Amino acid sequence: MQHETHARRLIDEADRRDRGVFQHALLVEAARVAVAAGSEELEYCARLRLAAAAGMSARSTELLDNIEWCLERHLTDSERFAARSGPVELAAVFAAVPPTLAASPSFSLATIDQSLSELQQLLAERDLRDEPDEPDERALSTHPPDSSGAATTRLDSDFLLTRARRHVLEATGRHREAASQRTALSRLRLLRTAAGDESHPAGHAHADADTPTHHDDPAHADDPTHHDDARGDGAADHPPPPRRIAESLLPLLQRGQLSDARLAHLRGYELVRHDPRHLAEIAMHIEYCADIGDLTRGLQLVGRHLHWLVVDPHDELARFDALLAVGCLLDLVCESDAEGHGPDVRVGAAEHPGLRLLLGMPTGAVTAESLSDACWALARTVAQRFDDRNGSSTFLDRCAAAEARSDVRCAALAETDARQGTRAVTHETPAAFRTIDPHSMLPSIQWLRAARERASVADPAGALWAIQQAHDMLDRESSAELLPHDDSARSLARAKPRPLVNSAPANPGPSNKPRARGAAARRKTTPAFDDLVTGATVSPVAPPHSTPGRRTPAPGDRALRTLARPGPADGTPAPPDPARGVRVALYDLEVRLAIERGDLARAEKVAAWRVDQLIAEDRLDLAEVELELGLLLFGVEPERRRGDLERELTAARRGAVDPEAQVSVLNALGELRLKQQRPREAIEFLLSSVTLCGHDPDCVAVQRPLMLLSRAQVAIEQPVWARATLDRLLRHDLDRAMRADALLLRASLLLGADEARAALDDADRALSLSLELHDGAGTIAACANLASLLEHLKVRPGVVEAWRMAVTEATTGFDHGAADHPDLLGLRFRLARALIASERGSEAAAELHRILDAAPTDVPAERAELLFWLGHAYRLEDDDDAAYASWSLSLTLCSLARDARAAVRAGLALGRLLLERDDPDSLDVLEHTLAQARRIPDEPSAEVDALHLYGIAQCAFGDVEGLQTFDRALDRAAQYSFDIDALLATVTESRARALDNLGLDEDALVTAARAARLYERLSDRASAGHAHLFTARLLVTLGRFDEALPVYRRALDLLPLETPVVELAVAEFRAIGARVAPPAGAAAAVTP
Q1: pLDDT for residue 49 is more than 50
Q2: Is residue 24 a contact partner of residue 50, using CB atoms and an 8 Å limit?
């Protein structure tokens, strides 16, 4: 392949792209190829465009390196290295250099002033170059000079220079001079608007001087075709720029326009959330969250964008703004008493290796307090460096002012928390329950079911809200049960113990007798009559267990087993309590939720309440086991001692403990073994648990071990047993979340058992349940499963829709503080593949570009895969230039990564494209592909395919040796395959077409007829029809029309109906039939 031609093609394709990873990859490869070709002119073109693209992104190092190289070449030889290269202008690109230098205290004021002088010189050179030449008098009399273009160029130059000066003045702390430059910018913007209205119909005016829109693109700053239509007065049909939106947040709050500020925040954040060069705007949005006290939202923004601090090492000005904003927010988080806040809350985003190095954080978990201190310390360091360079105290003053504002906010927050209590309580109804009638009285068991569903779908807020509703309903039910109906009922009501109320010990110390506390609570607590009437509850306050994990029982705890169980006085069995065990189950769920969020203190406190309730319900064996094991029963792994669960299980079996307690220990052991990747041991424990639960169809306790058992059986590849377990589980009355999980798991098993239709039904039902629950993760899993099943069944309708629903849910329904859903890129890739299979190339290309822009750049194999499919997407759109660029990049990446298989695949696609375009470069590409194929000894089919296509290319460009290449392909195939009839037919047809290209028509005729017979032997009607049609055309070329007619007829019999090929063949058949004089009575012969 000709290096210069290849580089020029890549540059031309890059000019068609706005920006992004694809354009950057094209330009980097073009520069590399230009260096290999020894063409400094092409390298200049590529580097100038790279600098322009870097100016529109957070790659200031690349901008400075490339623009310095280009400026040096231009000043040396302005004829060879012209100031304008295609759509890119050197002066416009260089306009981004002074602000970039000023944004870093590493560059001196002298260097910044020198860059401003160089910019002014380049702009003056451009103005002179665009001045009209001196016409003669005769030309002036017929064509008056038009100076509007030169005037517009001068306005553009003045604007670029003034804007650069203003950025430099702000970064160097000279705000008074910067204000005058801002005024000048406003005047120039108005003049440019007027000039745009007069000379350009689109009206290319700057939306805002501070806005990094197309006007800040140094590659197109003076190009009218790239200017926005947005007016300075804020036209309604164009969104305001991100900078202006971010700066408007504080004034809106100061005017009390809270709803407008909220809308502006949401709108402005969506404009900047995916672009690291908007770090300063992100800082303003974090500051907004601190101002309104939305700390949860602020922490989400910090989690998403904290790593942007290390993206651009030279943009320390934006880094300084971000550090101040993050420090202020984290100070509030440390002072807040709300759930999920506090100084010890973990900030996982700060554990990025680059951030640890920048902030000087030690290894280990990073808390809000430690990160806040590190941010303030680094902000002071950066401020000191700026002030040392600028010779002022501007930045240190800003830092001190920010700390003062943070102190004021923290004081206000502490006062608010003291007024509202030690724990902020929200009364807002979660979104999952807003459709429920607020006046409806759901029973407590239904609220328990709803809480389990919300916990299963990773909605802890909704689960806790449902738990609270269930407790309230239990209080109402208890109050209604205890209401006196006559005078004698009052004493009975007072004598009846009240659940949930614990008496705190008089001396709350490290007591080891929580059972005594529970028993005392059961004996001594007598709720007041007014409480029974109103249903009011007294908040139970019980000290937590001493330490997480195993709890050492006190002497005499085993005496609980000998307690007499109270019963009715008359000996008759008590009626079943429908709410029995509901409060215990609620506590179990609340303990697990606390463990999930890492709040072990809260988990221990609720576990103590659960033990008291178990004692109140006379479930003494289970209470005793939970006292001895503590949080180990709820999934907390032991920190020091091992084997406590096993020892407790042995003791329970020996002591004839109730099956309920044994099941609890067995479930905990099974869950622990699954976490430890020991599924075979988990199966033993879980089978024992299921056996103890029995076969009662109404048994709720068996559901959890059955679900765990099915997962363990899937883990050790026992699909038959797992399916049987799931069949039994699904016959129970499950909550919707557990049913959806079980259906999805069974769908995957059914697919493996070739029961795709049944699997499809299960996946569809799971999707319906997930949508009912507003379960984002479940919806994504169900959509992915459903789409995979449809692809397996080769049912195209619905595949794209299923993948698109999964992508939409991952994009809009996922908001857990991370940048994106962890599977979003994979889902987009599957969607793009499905779009390509449906021949919707433009949509597929859009999805693949989104993946390229978001995917990590240090994994060449993944990028090569994306580029390979991007080429296919462009090929469907008949954009051969873009397909060429994509496949050539993919081939280069695969070859550099020594991925021979991927290189062969990309090389065959690129070689076939070039061959269809009659480009002789296809020979070089296919020769390289053949060399890569020979590096795959265990896959000879790759070499056969490469030899086959290489032979076609050789013959297409007149090389007779291509015929021998066909023979080598067949010989290589025969070495590893017993049946090569299909390949023989394909190669024979290719040989026929190659002989035709070489001008050997007689040999081509014989070979084409043989290929048609071989296809018919294989019952490949379509391929046989094409071979017969080629044979008939060869006969027509040789003038043998009489022989061509029956061959045409045979081709029409075999070709698929209603295709363009058939229509063309019918037309040819009739034309040939008309040329042949038909005998009498044979007129119908010309009609197929």
Answers
A1: yes
A2: yes
